[in-house]
Amino acid sequence: MRLAYLAIPLIALAACSQEPAEDIETVETEAAEPMEDATLDLQAGGIIVPPQNGFEQYDVPFGSMRAATEVTLSNVLGEVIEQSEQANDCGLHFTRYQGLTLNFRQDEFVGYWAEAPYVPELSRAEMLADTGVALADGEGVLDDEFVIGDPQGEGIGGVFTGSGDDAAVRALWAGENCIAR
Fold first, then answer.
1. What predicted TM-score, i.e. pTM, was given to this entire model?
2. What is the Cα–Cα distance from 2 to 78, expressed in whole angstroms?
3. Fewer CB atoms inside 10 A, N or C side of the chain?
4. pLDDT, tens digit, 9 for 90 and up, residues 52-80
């Protein structure tokens, strides 16, 4: 699989709608293996599966129903690694795939947490050179946390592996997540 599609400038990521989709098309296949070199476009308001490997584009915005979200993304990501049976301390259920965790409140897709291979393969210096990326500041921020987009509004959060210029992106998230701060 390859890196999530995060084109520079990254500020454009905040443009996705928060409105739930009424008609989400899903594709069911018998294959449980992920698509080779699958790409996801991580957005501040959900996930877009760009056209690839014969499939058309699928939009999975926050507010989508859990079953449709899981079927659509399973066709790209492969088998589910783990699912929660009970809500965590934040009231969220999750479905985990290799490199991506989807968060649900009841049966509604409300957030994601992404790791390799769905994070940019850019250094801290390269990420921070973009004017749409800024280190997070304020009370309760994680060490080496950054924001893509509007720090006061809709955006994508992230964390580097360290504070050096060559540190990598460890994780990205958007929407509702249960992050210990």
1. 0.79
2. 14
3. C
4. 878 889 999 999 999 999 999 998 898 99
